[in-house]
Amino acid sequence: MKVTIDTQQFGEELKAKLANVIDPQKELFREVVTDLVPMVHDRIHIEGKAANGSQIGSYSNAYMKVRTGNYDNSTRVTRGKNKGKAKDAGTATKGKNAGAARNKYNRTADTKIILSLTRQLENDYAVIGVEGGYGIGFNNEHNADKARWNDERGHAKVYDLTAEELEYATQKTGELIAKELNK
Q1: Exposure string for 18-44, b = 16+ CB within 10 A, e = fewer
Q2: Could you tell me if residue 126 is left (phi over 0), alpha (psi between -120 and 50 degrees) or otherwise beta?
Q3: Burial of 158 (0-12, 13-18, 19+ CB in 10 A)
Q4: What is the pLDDT along the chain (183 residues), one digit of tens a residue?
Q5: Which whole-number Å values give the CA distances from 160 to 21, 106, 109, 119, in the listed order?
Q6: In a 10 Å sphere around its CB, with 0-12 CB exposed, 13-18 middle and 19+ buried, how is residue 81 labelled?
Q7: What's the DSSP call for residue 58?
């Protein structure tokens, strides 16, 4: 049996398919980063883990008062199943806001750092357009600065991808490319 292949035609078809795969307008890789956002979000903002798998850190006792609103002058619930718990965050006793009500953030008393108080940082973490495709980052430069600051102050990079997240991205990219080339 003799098989003849027109290598020039084959090469042109392969070249066209590859150009289609890497075309930023195709948005092929957007699916990969869209899948990664909730994975990274949960690792950082729920589990409190850096990219190397270690805990980001622990909140201080003073910060926990801000986080939970559990100040000494908080109004307390007097009856029912929540008796004794803080009803509000009380009032500021010092500074320009003295006498004004404090914000109550309704966060847990868990001391592991999850980089979330106002949820501004975690809600801004999203798929963003970058040169040649898509990435994960922040729409607001102030939040990007906060993320960089957290990476610099800690012992480990927080917003880098873990080995498992990178493996997922590589596998998903391979599947999408194979699917596109087999069309």
Answers
A1: eeebeeeeeebbeebbeebeebbbebb
A2: beta
A3: buried
A4: 676 666 677 677 777 777 766 665 567 788 899 999 999 999 999 999 999 999 988 888 888 777 777 777 778 888 989 888 877 777 878 888 888 887 877 777 788 888 877 788 889 999 998 887 788 999 999 999 988 888 888 778 999 999 999 999 999 988 988 887 787
A5: 25, 28, 27, 20
A6: exposed
A7: B
Per the CB < 8 A criterion, the answer to whether 86 and 69 are in contact is yes
Q: Which residues contact 56 (CB under 8 A, 6 or more apart)?
A: 44, 48, 49, 50, 112, 113, 114, 115, 150, 154, 156, 158
Instruction: Tell me if residue 51 falls in helix, strand or coil.
Output: coil
Residue 177 token pair: 């490319």
Output the pTM of the full model. 0.72
